[in-house]
Amino acid sequence: MNRPLTLVGIGAAVALALAGCAASPPEETGGPVELTFWHGYTEADGDVLQQIVDDFNASQDDVKITTEVKTWAVIDDTLLPALSADEGPEIVAMPGERLPVYADRGAFVDLSGWYGGEDSNADALNPQAVEMVTVNGTPYGVPTGFVPLSVFYNKALFADAGIGDFPQTWDEWRTAATQLTLDSDGDGTPEQYGLALPDHDTVANGLWPTLFYGAGGELVQDADTAVIDSDANRDALEYWVSAIRDDKISPTGLDGIGADELFSSGKAAMHVGGPWMASIAADSGIDYGIAAVPAGPEGQAASAIGVAMGVTAQAAEAETAGAEAFFSYFFDLDVATQWSLGSGWPPLRTDVPAEAVAENAVVVSLTEIAPTSRALLPGVVNSVDVLDAVDDLTQRAVAGEDLDDLLPTAQDEIQAALQ
Questions:
Q1: Residue 169 forms beta bridges with which residues?
Q2: Beta partners for 68?
Q3: Cβ neighbours, 10 Å, residue 200
Q4: In terms of Cα–Cα distance, which of 199, 349, 207, 196 is closest to 267?
């Protein structure tokens, strides 16, 4: 290790201002500050991100960013060794739930100074998206994506069943799912399911937390206390386990990939997923709609899928300042709108008007749903073990095991992970 992974202090050089979309110089140097940016955007979102980086580089002469596209898994596997060898990036993007792990290990710098800057555009960001990148009260990143899980539904199957408006409550949702479940030959195995509701390995691990929210439940409180063993979570489990086992609205033992396949093959009328389901449905010839997850008895909320980028501890002071200049540029109103339209995710700024994204129907739908978003396990370092415990709980509950045993076990496992 050439130097320890300690947080780099942010000094006066951090205070970069942008005039419109042009960055002011971070400090006097013999040439532009050179920054490497690792990210895992490989589809249309990668193309628009590259365009934004190119435009930022062209907007000023003081900072030059070079991108390196890697898979998210490769970033996760190689970031710490690269930083330990002083060969890593100065900017890196990763799934939001992984950022606290690296922040806890000293791999990211504290961005409080940037968030407090007049020209950062940070005040306009979705507060829940900012919560996603905050650990112990300190922001260690900026969001690049934040979108709630939503329900994708097959309009043709809804029409065949005579269902007009999309359900707004759990009871309406379950009734519709039951009506859309068809077992024509009476063999006990439906040919068509009303809802693909996986009991483990769900999309971004956020489906069951979403259902818990609807009943007034939580997984963790204040990032350090397990609260899974609650009456609210028991109520949610009993309600949806009954819908799966008794009403047969979804197969038992289903995982997230299987749920994708059921919906894309037309064998499930509804599926809870992320923005990528729009292209999957379109490629499968499904005329689909997008709706918010219906409200439970205690409210409406949906776990959000998120991606964040941060400045690594490898960055020197001038490099940190240059990265922060890019962040300010990225969140300029016009650039933020460009990113939303190109990536297909709702705007990260709350002040982007609906008409600004009207050309992308998926973005419009997701933007309307965005207020239901909840950050999943913000600030929890050992989120993987927490979500593994939830997976074990839900899969065994749907298999018919006793909640009196499952909930206390999950409580103990999650508390151990938090400690």
A1: 295
A2: 38
A3: 21
A4: 196
Whether pLDDT at 1 is above 70: no
Measuring CA to CA, which residue among 198, 173, 214, 208 is closest to residue 263?
Answer: 198
Supply the pTM of this predicted model: 0.86
The type of residue at 319 is E
Residue 77 one-letter amino acid: D
**pLDDT single digits (tens) 103-138:** 999 999 999 999 999 999 999 999 999 999 999 999
Identify whether the C-beta of residue 82 lies closer than 8 Å to the C-beta of residue 68: no
Separation between Cα atoms, residue 114 and residue 397, nearest integer Å: 45
Give the pair of three-digit tokens for residue 193: 């399911």
* 227 neighbors 218 (Cβ within 8 angstroms): yes
**C-alpha to C-alpha distance for 13 and 321, rounded to whole angstroms:** 6
Of 166, 159, 121, which Cα lies nearest the Cα of 143?
Answer: 121
15 pLDDT higher than 60:
no
* Strand pairing class (91-95; 33-39): parallel
